[in-house]
Amino acid sequence: MAKQDKENAEGEGDRPFIGILFECCNIYNRIYINKMQTAYVGWCPRCGAKIEIPIDPNGTDERFFRAR
Questions:
Q1: Burial level of 5, CB count in 10 A (0-12/13-18/19+)?
Q2: What pLDDT shows up at residue 10?
Q3: What total number of domains does the chain contain?
Q4: Closest C-alpha to 32, from 3, 12, 60, 58
């Protein structure tokens, strides 16, 4: 299955995301916007630590962040 097909099958293909470096386990992962479009929410794929980043109307253009 092609990457684009797999992303669409998983429902993540067109959802906005940001890249996060989870410093707890030194792992990069994407986190996606929630259904209410009020925050980006995700979990560290190794230890399960949750991160939630609220969306600010005057936000940033940055797409990559570090979670400490």
A1: exposed
A2: 56
A3: 1
A4: 12
Phi/psi of residue 10, nearest 5 degrees: -85, -5
pLDDT per position as a tens digit, 26-46: 999 999 999 999 999 999 999
Residues in the chain: 68
* Residue 59 domain flag: yes
Asked if residue 7 belongs to a domain, the reply is no
Query: Residue 48: phi, psi to the nearest 5?
Result: 85, 10
| Residue keyed to tokens 């990457």 | 3
Q: Specify the amino acid at residue 30.
A: R
pLDDT of residue 12: 60
Range of the domain at 22: 15-67
- 3 in a structural domain: no
Instruction: State the Cα torsion 4-29-57-60 to the nearest 10°.
Output: -100
The DSSP symbol for 68 reads -
